[in-house]
Protein 1
Amino acid sequence: MVAMVPQLLFRTGQTNDEAEQLLKLFWSRATLKKQFDKLRNENIALNERLKDAEMLKLRLQQRVEQLESMLANPATSSAAITYYQLKSLWHNCSMRVAAVSAELWKQHYDIEHRKHIGKFRREMYKSLSTVQRQLHDVNRQGEMLSEQILAHRELRNRCQGFWNYFRRRALTAEISQMRTERRAITMRLGELTEEMQSCSNAHPPQFAGLETATKRSVNIIVIAFAQELYLHFAGRELAAKAREAAIMQVTDVNFGDRRACREISRHVENRIALLQNDATLDSRARQRAAYLTELAVFNRDNDSLPVAASLSSIPLLTAEGQLCGQVDVNVLAEEYWDLPAAVLT
């Protein structure tokens, strides 16, 4: 249909200018229609986003009203305070786990990146040394050839008289041959010089990132750290309650009456204070990681995260690293402290 439009616009008696103006008007109309359709679609999409935003605002307003109602009621205010206290506990532990993972990643990244750069530089220096030796050898050959050419020219100049005609002719042929060889050497010197400049100006290849073995080591330490945090907050099931608060709404949880909620709040405060003063947490986590390394199973050679079933429980270890019991909690499968977001993949 579009191909027939120009033919329909050219009517009998029309000049070329009139036909051209009609064509321009037609294409301008088509362009404007496309732009209009695009703007209409964008408007529809923006209206949908606005509706979604209004629905979200309405839900948030409802939550705020529910929270205000709970805080205004003495019977439920303690539950709301405990809920957000446990939710804050979960968030703080998640941040600590993520910080451990980020710090370990940076340490290993710096080490492996330096090794990557060092390997590149060693290979570059090796290549440069090889090229420099070749350049020196070829340059020496050129100098020796130049000396030979000069000696042959002097000898030819001394060969005077018609009886030395054939001797001069042979020397000229030899000189010509040596000049050809010298030109080849000069070209080779140029190639080696370019190769040396290319090696000197080369940049290291892009660093591919941490090796799988390194990622596994980091992830095991992060999982061990998460287990230590669970054990620290295992009393009165604080860790389990914090997980419940993290995945549920304030109106959907029940931590008991006012007295029970206050006991939970006091216990949370005490355990947080002890955690802040725990100087052996990192060393215990690394000791635990050494134990978990023997238990961790990986499905494939390039997997950096162990199978959750292989770490189905939390081992209780003595100060010497010996097993003395276990807690049936799988921090990896149950995603304690947002582990999936913290581990390296």
Protein 2
Amino acid sequence: MRWRLSIRHITGFTYAGTAHASYNEARMTPLSVPQQATLRSAVEISPSVPTWRYTDYWETQVTAFDLQRGHDHLRVTATSLVETGLAPHTSNGSTSDGHAELLAPTPLTAVSPELVGKAAQAVGMLGRADPSDRAVAVADWVRENVAYVPGSTGVRTNAQEAWALRQGVCQDIAHLTVGLLRAMGIPARYVSGYLYPLQEAEVGDTVQGQSHAWVEYFDAGWHGHDPTNGIPADHRHVLVARGRDYADVTPLKGAYHGAPSSHIGVTVEITRLA
């Protein structure tokens, strides 16, 4: 199924006084890959400032900019037009040494040997020879045991902490799934993007969408799976960035000098156009 989606994503900061200088990177531009085509994209900054783009190590489109004058807010608005569902959420590749980084734990995805053993026993790993079968079974097990509770964790919560809480957001569920898959020898990467929340939509429908996280696992190619919702990544998923964990794909990050800041939150509006 093909959809054409218009996306508007707003985020940023306000300052309790004056910020004198800031240096920033935004990862808010959807990728053009076999399963989706980005037909149009723009990233606008307030206060207005020149930007430049580059592709990072993980092949994510990065918009970089800095403000060298006093400002009391930073607002980033990313708009894009994306056609989805062009192909299954898979891509080719090989299990070469190039996947070593996607088999190693990170501070956000590391899990204990006890948890790995518990998961392996629960899903019957010894009886599952097919990597895809094992990967989906692990993702389903995480979903069954970790409740999706908005606001229950923060961006610095790691996989093991989310497991201890038995609750988290999509970021935590993705981190935990990625960590377990890597510990079981299946290359896995963390994916960020957008999710149109309704399974059915009329052309012209605009909804409050959401920034979302899911995973890709390797089995003779990369396959996308959404462990939070228990479904393969499909035409409702818009891929923006991939990496080892959230730290590689943070939508807006940087450094500044000045007064304390407050996050303005995140607003995502998604409209189905076709």
